[in-house]
Design goal:
By secondary structure, the protein is α+β, with helices and mostly antiparallel strands. The chain is 34% helix and 23% strand. The chain has 3 domains: 8-125, top7, de novo designed protein; 133-209, Translation Initiation Factor IF3, CATH 3.30.110; 222-410, Roll (C8orf32 fold).
């Protein structure tokens, strides 16, 4: 609730009793109630606008609720306007004030016959919450902090960034989730609020998950051994295609899969045998990277429907790999661009997949290429994708204690 001083002497009687207010020699500074530090007293003075700004910033940074600022040397005809501008700056432009302050009330009076300003600051958050704000130098440090928050399934992150630049945090989170399905069990909804103006900003990120933090951590611990076993299964001496094929077998022969969409793609795919094309592509790419193989994720459409598949670097040449299409055809398959019939993707965003010589000049190629099936060639059916998968409360598939050994026996 906003609090305002009715008059200077009323504020003195409530806030500064016994602190030497009337003699003008001391100024009382009352810390926020939840501030875990001893009460401090000292003279605060401001002779100009900049010093008044500095004084307000100091009060906010320390979580101080009330103080008196000596303005005896401030030109009397400029005090009122200077106070109004300083309060506006502290609440709207100063990053910590824009984030944490609800209101600043000021009342001009006298102390020991000298002009003085009584200040009351009302905060939106407790001092303990304000103190947890992390100070970072630049946006690279911010992105590192976001990644760490995703790894820990943190619900929020508040950062004071010294050198702020605009970033698409929602896209940063989505990209990391796609590239690290073994870490991010569920891609959270991201709410971004920035506070302040100028070079520095307070960035507030709120991550909303449908699953609890404990549940997500348990999922993470259950899929980790599967990814570890995949990298161990690949032969270190074999050719690239052999390794890609081995990982395909490791993943695709785990279950008789149900093609549906889930909010926990890696967990649902590896523990319940439920996943869509995006889940297959992201999990397979992560397994390939874990084995030292280059494997990209391609987003586009297949037969007019949203679809995701992979692009691998095999013996120096790029090929498309669609795990679900390969499964329909009975085993691991690599396809060139011309063989990707009924697929659409952003041609300019990915390497050419010729399977032989990469053309030098692609400027004449369309930025988005559609390859349509010949009328005489059969088009593979597109599996049905549901909006969301509701998983059973308990795992329906028994996971062996030693995944790699069991898989080798099966093979």
């Amino acid at each position: 609730m906003k609090r305002k001083m009715v008059c200077l002497f009323a504020a003195v009687s409530l806030l500064l009793t016994g602190c030497g207010w009337l003699d003008g020699n001391y100024v009382s500074v009352a810390p926020h109630r939840e501030q875990e530090q001893s009460q401090q007293t000292g003279v605060i003075s401001a002779a100009n606008y900049q010093e008044l700004l500095d004084a307000l910033e100091e009060l906010i940074a320390s979580g101080t609720e009330s103080a008196v600022i000596n303005v005896a040397d401030y030109p009397s005809n400029m005090v009122e306007n200077g106070v109004a501008l300083a309060v506006r700056y502290a609440k709207g432009t100063y990053p910590m004030g824009a984030y944490a302050v609800e209101d600043i009330a000021c009342e001009l009076g006298t102390s020991g016959g000298q002009p003085a300003l009584a200040v009351t600051v009302t905060y939106r958050y407790s001092w303990a919450q304000i103190r947890r704000i992390r100070k970072l130098e630049n946006m690279e440090a911010v992105e590192t902090a976001v990644v760490q928050a995703l790894k820990s399934f943190d619900p929020s992150l508040v950062l004071l960034v010294e050198t702020y630049e605009d970033r698409d945090f929602i896209q940063i989170v989505e990209n990391y989730a796609v590239e690290h399905p073994q870490i991010v069990m569920e891609t959270p909804q991201v709410t971004v609020n920035t506070h302040g103006g100028g070079k520095s900003r307070v960035v507030e990120l709120i991550f909303t998950y449908q699953n609890s933090r404990d549940a997500l951590r348990q999922m993470q611990s259950q899929v980790e051994p599967v990814f570890n076993a995949a990298s161990l299964y690949v032969s270190g001496e074999g050719a690239d295609r052999q390794k890609f094929s081995q990982l395909y077998a490791f993943l695709m022969e785990r279950f008789d899969y149900t093609v549906e969409t889930s909010i926990t793609p890696a967990y649902s795919l590896l523990r319940h045998g439920v996943g869509d094309s995006r889940a297959f592509a992201t999990v397979y790419a992560a397994m390939c990277r874990g084995a030292g193989l280059e494997c990209r994720i391609v987003t586009g459409t297949h037969a007019g429907e949203p679809w995701t598949w992979n692009m691998v670097l095999d013996n120096g040449y790029y090929y498309h790999v669609d795990l679900l299409r390969s499964s329909e055809q009975g085993g691991y398959r690599e396809f060139t661009d011309s063989e990707m019939r009924n697929y659409v993707w952003d041609y300019s965003a990915y390497p050419v997949c010729t399977g032989a010589v990469v053309p030098e000049d692609r400027e004449s190629q369309s930025a988005e290429t559609t390859v349509v099936a010949d009328s005489e060639e059969e088009t593979l059916p597109l599996p049905t994708m549901a909006e969301e998968t509701v998983l059973p409360e308990e795992t329906t598939v028994t996971e062996p204690d030693n995944i790699l050994e069991e898989f080798k026996k099966k093979a």
